[in-house]
Amino acid sequence: MSRTDLHLGSTSFCVLDIETTGLSAHQHEITEIAAIRVSEGFEIEEEFQCLVRIGGRVPWHITQITGIDDRMLRAQGKELPEVLKQVHDFSCGRLAFAHNARFDRSFLNAAAQRLGWQDEFALECSIPVFKRLLPGRRGYGLGAVADCLRVRSGVAHRALADCRMLLDCLKRAHG
């Protein structure tokens, strides 16, 4: 039985999301990380959100999508090693989900590897959960799942808002 086969709602877990400057974990940088610790009954225990200072610039098209710009990262961002440690500690070894986890995991693990960390970020993907609970859909992107489940989304493409949307979708899908 895989970890995603555990019955959500009977175990505590985390949801996690990142925003980046692009699609390649080896060429682009993490600009924001958020996570939510969730109780067995889908109640939010605590939220974590942090902007990350980057070495380069945020591309214009990414700012258009996320609203995150260079000024924000300089003023409010923290250094990546500090943020990675905080998010690692925040998850407390709980089962952690991300939507399209391969993307988030690749960025987190590439960053950890560049920093010389031995640990990797273990993230389960929520897409197989939705495929099991909502079979036969055309697409399983977070927006499509939210629309199917009639989950109202806040600001899309900000890490904490996407974490909240994912959590609401998981909660709604599990009744």
Short description:
The chain is built from seven helices and five strands; from the N terminus they run βββαααβαβααα.
Characterization of this structure:
This protein has 175 residues and is α/β, with parallel strands linked by helices. The chain has one domain: 2-Layer Sandwich (Nucleotidyltransferase, domain 5). It contains seven helices and five strands, in the order βββαααβαβααα. It has a five-stranded mixed β-sheet, sandwiched between helices. The chain is globular and about 45 Å long.
Annotation keywords:
175 residues; alpha/beta; Nucleotidyltransferase, domain 5; five-stranded mixed beta sheet; 7 helices; 5 strands; 39% helix
Task: Please outline the helices and strands.
Layout: E1 13-20, E2 30-38, E3 44-51, H1 60-66, H2 70-76, H3 80-91, E4 95-98, H4 101-114, E5 124-125, H5 127-133, H6 142-148, H7 159-173
Parallel strand pairs: 1-4, 4-5
Antiparallel strand pairs: 1-2, 2-3
Amino-to-carboxy terminus distance: 22 Å
Average pLDDT level = 92
Total number of strands: 5
Query: What is the succession of H and E elements?
Result: EEEHHHEHEHHH
Gyration radius over CA: 16 Å
Unreliable stretches (pLDDT < 50, length at least 5) are none
Structural class of the secondary structure composition? alpha/beta
Total domain modules: 1
What best-fitting shape do the alpha-carbon axes yield?
globular
Which sheet architecture does the biggest sheet show?
5 strands, mixed
Residue share in helices? 25-40%
